[in-house]
Amino acid sequence: MTFHPREGWNAGRRFAPWERPMSRRRMIRLSASAVITAQLLAACGESSESSSGSGSGVKIGTPENPVKQPLFDDNAGIESDLEPEDGPLKLYNWADYLWPRVIKDFSEEFGVEVELTTFYNMEEATRKLRTGDLQFDVFFPTAEVLPKFVAGKILQPLNHDYLPNLAANVWSELQDPYFDVGSRYTVPYTVYQTGIAWRTDMVEADIESMENPWDVFWDSQYSGITGLYDDFRETIGVGLYHTGNNDINTGDQEALNGARDALMELVDLVNVRYTIDGAYAGMPEGKFGLHHSWSGDIVGAQYYFPKGGDPSVLRFLWPPKSEASTAGGYISNDSLAIPADAQNPVLAHMFLNYLMDEGVALKNFGWLGYQPPLNGILPDKLVGDGYVPENVASAIIDKEDFSMGQIPVQLAPEVESLWLDAWSQVQSG
């Protein structure tokens, strides 16, 4: 199971190391894909082998083969023109992935109490949602896990009559995403890329002119200052890119072995360290000069520099945007959804629509650092208005980028086992 945590940061505030919360980008991506699939499907009496017919089973889409998620007679969406409930509206989210001020503003504007509960990883969230011991109104799933949640009837279909901002504001490319054609169960929350971050005062390589920028992680002159994410999908992906393979959803054993072997070379070659916070916190502190980086992490890194530090030394490259590069790079999005047993589904729809308001989304971006895919949030203005430093303006995402990079999709359990086996060997050295 793939998770793409978005590490929160508080504009203008520098956290001491002991103050930094255990947020979504600070946990190791724990994988329990096959287990969760079995749990979800067992709960609704479905077979994980089913992929056709009346919409049963897990429907895994790809950019080349988009899927419309099934609807179920016993899991219908709400009707139109209903009055909102009294609340409280209950949110279930990764820690530090939504500005508390946005929650407060919604509460005041609509006169309802809002409660936030956070989870550590998707396995925990799945368990609590499946058992029904706790009921929530809004949930923040990743794109990759959606097929399992739909098959398990954990989420309810959305009623677009309550979501006018979806058609009015969201990038057309994500109004009809490959994993949920027609946005039956989700609306987009943020987009992100995975690339390479470095400090110009510690790394001299001209990474932007390299044919394969990922090769810089194998440069021995950066021994001791090189880091990769502690994340099996992302980092096995780096190994694949380094070996010239841009298929980051591959199930080919030979390709995965090559990526594994390449990553294992890094132990002796550069004394590589695997982290979750190395890009946004370790680089500002000077612990790393070169690190694997999510776009939102490098935007937020400016606020983690110690007093007197110089954030202008930071740089970011997403290889597909480099004219010299033939290598790929991850790009994807996170989503918003409503659990099937939500007690306040009308309020929940209102909250989803609220987060797709351009003014609200921009305000949230100023704290979060991860970009909302809305038409009115123009890339040039993000730099000009001071949301993104000019030296890392390359971390801003254009809607056209989705046609340039590689989108990680949910792996079939047997394929994911190959990835996890390779990762286990990498981690053991």
Describe it:
- By secondary structure, the chain is of the alpha/beta class.
- It folds into two domains: 17-191 and 333-390, Periplasmic binding protein-like II (D-Maltodextrin-Binding Protein, domain 2); 192-330 and 406-427, 3-Layer(aba) Sandwich (D-Maltodextrin-Binding Protein, domain 2), CATH 3.40.190.
- It is built from 14 helices and nine strands.
- Strands 4, 5, 6, 7, 8 and 9 form a six-stranded mixed sheet that branches. Strands 2-1-3 form a three-stranded parallel sheet.
- Helix 2 links the parallel strand 1 (89-94) and strand 2.
- Helix 7 packs across helix 8 (253-270).
- It is globular, with a radius of gyration of 21 Å.
- The protein starts with 32 loop residues before the first helix and ends with a helix.
- Mean pLDDT is 87; it is low at 1-35 and 41-56.
State the main characteristics.
429 residues, alpha/beta, D-Maltodextrin-Binding Protein, domain 2, six-stranded mixed β-sheet, three-stranded parallel β-sheet, 11% strand
